[in-house]
Write a structure and sequence with these properties.
Layout lengths: L16 E5 L6 H13 L4 E2 L7 H9 L17 E7 L11 H4 L5 E6 L11 E4 L5 H11 L6 H15 L9 H12 L4 H8 L5 H12 L4 E3 L2 E10 L6 H12 L3 E8 L4 E8 L6 H7 L3 E2 L3 E7 L3 H13 L8 H4 L13 H11 L3 E6 L2 E7 L4 H6 L1
Parallel strand pairs: 1-2, 1-3, 3-4, 4-5, 7-8
Antiparallel strand pairs: 6-7, 8-9, 9-11, 10-11, 12-13
The chain binds manganese (II) ion (MN).
Length: 383
């Protein structure tokens, strides 16, 4: 969708609280977009998720004074009249802002570059599939003749390079490259950029990479060399996507998938990377309930064996996902159900808690309906 960016269409500034939000596990593109939005929407407060990527955390701790932002719990959400969402289009990726989902009136403005259509319905949006979200915002900053400090330009370039893999990911466009040039013109510091983009490799990441390489295999599907790797882990391992990226490079394959099973929480984190246009990780992950870009993406699935996930991925890439994998391999089990009299609010929190997108509705022991995440959209018409 080509966005029509016209200054006259930009929302007017109101009196009440206006905030800017982005996705948890905040990366540099998201942080850059938060800061860019605070320039485009003066008077709006950028709100930082508590969960940010480690390299973003390191950047913020060094430049605390320049980029100070409150968390959502420090904001009077009842007073919010406008929410600007950047670099994401799904409510469940925002942190601590659930109450805004049902708040009326609320003006919602959306800036996003993800290919999949999320569930945030905006009054004004700039949605366009492009390498980095910050590129869309630089377009607008340029048009409005806004000044950038060298530190802002540096942060924006870090976001742009991170999301485009230094302009090498296939999702990168000419406009991303022009935007990078614009930021270099505005004195972006490449020393700082490359310092923060060096992958944060800790002991846990190294150990995971070694384990993956020990059990590494590759196979051919439709002429592409692909590697699937299944590993268990406990606790929390940051930056598994960086591990999968490096694994793909070392294995020298067209695409790689890490299927990481968290034993305690009984869920699988699936992370994919691809160098091939024909293997679109974003749409594969979308089909699994996750998301991402053509070159990189992830999904979290509950109550599924890693073997079933791998088989499903193979079949999906081979183009015959309906064939041998059965519903019983993929379905969530054990089944939980809700009664038709449960409030939608309770149903929503139950789905969130169980990590499911749908639930059977059971009344007196018999199945009377199905409630899926899509049904929540109907609420907007009711309220
Ligand atoms: Mn992004």
């Amino acid at each position: 969708m080509k966005a029509d960016i016209n200054r006259n269409q930009m929302p007017e500034k109101g009196n009440a609280v206006q905030i800017i939000a982005t996705h948890r596990n905040t990366d540099f593109d998201a942080l850059a977009s938060l800061v860019a939005a605070s320039i485009l929407y003066p008077g709006s407060t950028p709100v930082l998720p508590r969960l940010v990527n480690p390299n973003v955390k390191a950047f913020l701790s060094i430049h605390k004074d320049l980029f100070e932002m409150p968390f959502a719990d420090g904001i009077d959400l009842d007073a919010v009249s406008r929410l600007v969402v950047v670099d994401i289009n799904r409510w469940d990726r925002l942190e601590g802002l659930e109450v805004l989902r049902r708040k009326r009136p609320l003006e919602v403005v959306l800036w996003d570059h993800h290919p999949d259509k999320g569930d945030i319905v905006a009054d004004w949006e700039c949605r366009e599939v492009i390498g980095a979200n910050i590129t869309l915002m630089i377009r607008q900053l340029k048009e409005q003749g806004k000044m950038l400090t060298p530190m802002q330009a540096t942060l924006f370039l870090t976001g742009l390079y991170e999301d485009t893999g230094n302009l090498t990911f296939r999702s990168s466009t000419a406009e991303d490259a022009y935007a990078a040039g614009y930021l270099l013109d505005h004195k972006a510091d490449l020393g700082i950029v490359s310092n923060f983009l060096r992958p944060a490799y800790g002991e846990k990441q190294k150990e995971m990479l070694f384990r993956m390489l020990k059990s590494a295999e590759r196979r051919k599907i439709k002429g592409y060399s692909i590697s699937f790797n299944r590993q268990d882990f406990t606790g929390h391992v940051n930056n598994l996507s960086v591990v999968v990226r490096m694994y793909m490079d070392i294995m020298n394959v067209d695409a790689a998938f890490g299927i990481f099973t968290n034993i305690e929480r009984k869920k699988c984190i699936v992370i994919g990377r691809s160098n091939m246009e024909e293997i679109n990780i974003g749409s594969i992950m979308h089909a699994m309930g996750g998301g991402g870009h053509p070159g990189a993406g992830a999904a979290v699935i509950a109550s599924v064996t890693p073997e079933a996930v791998e088989e499903w991925l193979c079949e999906f890439i081979a183009g015959n996902q309906q064939s041998s994998v059965q519903v019983s391999d993929i379905m969530s089990f054990p089944v939980f159900s809700i009664s038709p009299t449960v409030s939608m609010r309770e149903a929503a929190s139950l789905l969130r808690e169980k990590g499911c997108t749908g639930v059977p509705v059971v009344d007196n022991g018999s199945l009377v309906g199905i409630l899926s995440r899509r049904d929540f959209k109907k609420l907007e018409k009711v309220f």
